[in-house]
TrEMBL record:
UniProt keyword ATP-binding, yes or no: yes
GO molecular-function terms, A-Z: ATP binding; ATP hydrolysis activity
Classification via Gene3D superfamilies: P-loop containing nucleotide triphosphate hydrolases
Protein name per the record: ABC transporter ATP-binding protein
ABC transporter domain residues: 21-251
Keywords assigned: ATP-binding, Nucleotide-binding
Length: 318
């Protein structure tokens, strides 16, 4: 029986589903700077939540507070029913943590790295070999288990890092920017791995600033900006709410773009800049007279989570 099942009675409830992670009014300051500013967030058990936000939004700090690597100045944090930081040892034993920075032991083989963590996480001696075999298989590293980490490719190292966080079969796994800096093919490979975890019932909390990553993997996205969640919901719901169904992109010289923005804003329509173009969101609601004023040169496309991200955070996308 997982810790999650044992402790759900004391977990906060969200819409009938027990929360694996709950943060209420959490504040974290670094000197005079407030990195996390009254954060409320719940991750329903068994779901994958993507914590999405631009660099510096407070995602990593939030992840660190869940493991008590950073201590909140205000608010309450519950992880798998354990109060953090008071019960952080027990919470940490029940969750898997995959850090942003690769901190594998390069002198050891892939298998040895997993064995050490199986020991640290107190996987019983009799099931340790199987646990390591399973983690290697999950990360498609069985063939490479005897290779020193130093000789593994970047993608293999990242898969090993994830496998290491899963060796004790945690009910919850925290992934901090799991595919940052990896090429698209390796990223896609890792997405398959993460998707498999969620399909197997593991709760996943993943921070990312790649919109496509959140869109593909997350049941729900929480969009963070300046230390707060500014919007939360399924990717489809966020798009419908903030960008509508259709977007019309207008290209042209700076004066023309300013003109498009003026007309759209006059009609109460949100816009976003994309390099040499302005996109008018919620285009399906444009009244005919405004449509005429905007001109016929617009290119229509479906609204996306990227539109939501840019409009709500005012940031560019990587
Ligand atoms: N130990 C620290 N001391 C001072 N400031 C910090 C510290 N850790 C984080 N910060 C600041 O807090 C803010 C939030 O940082 P955080 O790393 O949580 O953001 P993030 O959303 O994870 O961004 P990134 O994707 O760049 O890691 C940033 O402005 C960062 O400079």
């Amino acid at each position: 029986m997982t810790v999650q099942r044992i402790r759900t009675a004391s977990a906060q409830d969200s819409g009938g589903v027990a929360a694996a992670v709950s943060l209420r009014g959490v504040v974290k300051r670094f000197g005079g700077f407030t990195a996390v500013d009254g954060l409320d967030l719940e991750v329903p058990a068994g779901s994958c939540l993507g914590l999405l936000g631009p660099n510096g939004a407070g995602k990593s700090t939030t992840m660190k507070m869940l493991t008590a690597q950073a201590l909140a100045d205000e608010g309450t944090i519950t992880v798998l029913g354990f109060s953090v930081p008071r019960e952080s040892k027990r919470a940490r034993a029940a969750m898997g943590v995959v850090p942003q920075q690769d901190n594998l032991d390069e002198e050891l083989t892939a298998r040895e790295n997993l064995e050490i963590f199986a020991h640290l996480y107190r996987v019983p001696r009799r099931s340790r070999r199987q646990a390591v075999d399973d983690a290697l298989a999950l990360a498609h590293l069985t063939e490479r288990q005897l290779v020193k980490v130093d000789d593994l490719s970047g993608g293999m190292r990242r898969r090993l890092l994830i496998a290491r966080g899963l060796v004790h079969r945690p009910a919850l796994v925290l992934l901090d920017e799991p595919t940052v800096g990896l090429d698209p093919q390796v990223r896609a490979e890792l997405w398959g791995l993460i998707d498999g975890l969620r399909a197997g019932g593991t709760t996943v909390l993943m921070s990312t600033h790649y919109i496509e990553e959140a869109e593909r993997l997350a049941d729900e996205c929480a969009l963070m900006s300046h230390g707060r969640v500014i919007a939360q919901g399924s990717p489809a719901r966020l798009v419908a709410e903030h960008a509508g169904k259709l977007v019309v992109e207008h290209y042209g010289p700076p004066d023309r773009l300013l003109d498009v923005e003026r007309v759209a804003h006059g009609a109460g329509l949100p816009t976003r800049r994309t390099g040499p173009s302005v996109s008018v969101l919620k285009a399906e609601t444009i009244p005919p007279s405004v449509d005429e004023e905007l001109g016929p040169d617009g290119v229509r496309r479906a609204a996306s989570l990227e539109d939501v991200f840019v409009v709500l955070t005012g940031e560019r996308v990587e």
